[in-house]
Design a protein that fits this description.
By secondary structure, this protein is of the alpha+beta class. Helices cover about 60% and strands about 15% of the residues. Helix 4 packs antiparallel against helix 5 and helix 7 packs antiparallel against helix 8.
Amino acid sequence: MDVYTGVKLRVSRRLLLFLCITIESLVCSCIFSPVVGQTAKVLTLNLEGAITKAEANNPQLLTAQRSINVAQAGMAVAKDRPNPRFSLDIPFGEAETKRIVGIEQLIELGGKRGTRLALANSQAQQAQLQLDNLRWQIRTQVRQAYTELAIAQGAQQNAEQSLAINQQLVDIAKLRFQADDVAKADVVQAEFAFSQAQQKVEPAVNRVHQAIIHLNTLLSQPTDTIINLVDGQAFTFYLNGSQQGLAVITKLPEVTELKKLAKASRLDLALAQQQIQINNNQIQVARSARIPDVTLAASFVWDPGLNTASAPSSTTTAVILGARVDLPVFNSGASGVKQVRANFSVA
């Protein structure tokens, strides 16, 4: 073999090696690149935009907003007073000739209207707290899903970069082996490291897909919508030697400060306290129900009398005043107080 033939053979081997590496890289990119449909929608979001979109499209939040109107209507009903009752009695026949016109008015005693109004007001405040608490939960879920997507995208990028670096190491090891600079074991070792890096890419891609589906579900939009984050820099990965972590931009407060903030602003805690207030108002309503109400009545009686041939009629009139009270003989209302006290102990 002459020198020209040896050089030509070496160039042919390098060209073949380059073609193999290129084909292998293209196959890997086809395997691990996410498949995106041509009709898939692409949405560019930041964190505030994701929260706003989730609040606008969440059906549970819309239902909670309607419940506030129901609670406000309950307050209007609690303000109502009992209507008076009008009665008119006109007899037919010769056995009775009295005409009676009467009116009755129920008088609530024991502060029933005030306690009922206080309970309705507490229920309206509870409805508002439930709406705020649901909105807080939705925001928390969106923040968590948004963070998970940002971290998953950072992990995917890190895995792809690691795969590219290992691919370069395999290429270098093969070239050095062709030049008889290293042993075959070095090529095998580089290919093994490349295989390990390759196995980490697919789980990272699947994690991104799952995070996109979860966030799309919270946003009430098709799950195949591609989401591009524009403010995910806080979740960018960094490498410090062999340690991997997140590049945190803003410093978090101390744990003690976070605990104080949680006790002061946690809506679920405020909702639990409001439930205690509602049960307390229910106890007052049950107590006031034990006091009997009084019904005042007034009637006007007109009796023309019987008109016969032997005895002409003589008209008589009268005014009747009366009062009616329900006697708590069989039902004193103590069982109702006992029931609301049990609910109060649960709250």
